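User: I would dearly like some help making sense of a protein record. This is the protein in question:
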Amino acid sequence: MARSEFCVAGQLILRKDLCSLARGAMVSLHDSIKVLEELLLRDINPCYPAFTVKVPKDVHFVHEAPADLFFIAYEDIFNLFHSRRLDYNLVRLYALHLAMKIKRENTPDIAIVDPYYMRDCQLAEGSGEREMAKTYLQQFLVDNKRNDVILLPFFPE
């Protein structure tokens, strides 16, 4: 049975005709989700399906609690496959991936800001996170003053 509008455990994320058009990592992710969901459905006490992401300390991302861990729900991956609005954690995961790739490949002159603080609710006047975001951004700019390009994801609500 093919999925349509909602994420349903144990069913394909994409219709079979669209699945045949997917390539590389998308196919691997699609197939992995299917297998993991089938395992969860057989479990006596299934848990909420999500991937846990631990933020490494060797990139300029916020890695103090509660920002050191975040979760990617299967439903967020479903939305990715269906070109729907992405949860900010999925964008944060991609930004982290790019930051790690830049570090690993020693790419000069590019830095990526952690989008953890870049939501309206955290940047609103009077929020406690606003000062933390300001401190983080100031330190990030000092640490990356030699970079020509700084990417800053932002999430208006």
User: Anything to note?
Assistant: The longest strand covers residues 50-54. Helices lie at 16-19, 24-42, 74-81, 88-104, 120-123, 128-143. The CA atoms of residues 119 and 155 lie 5 Å apart. The chain has a mean pLDDT of 80.
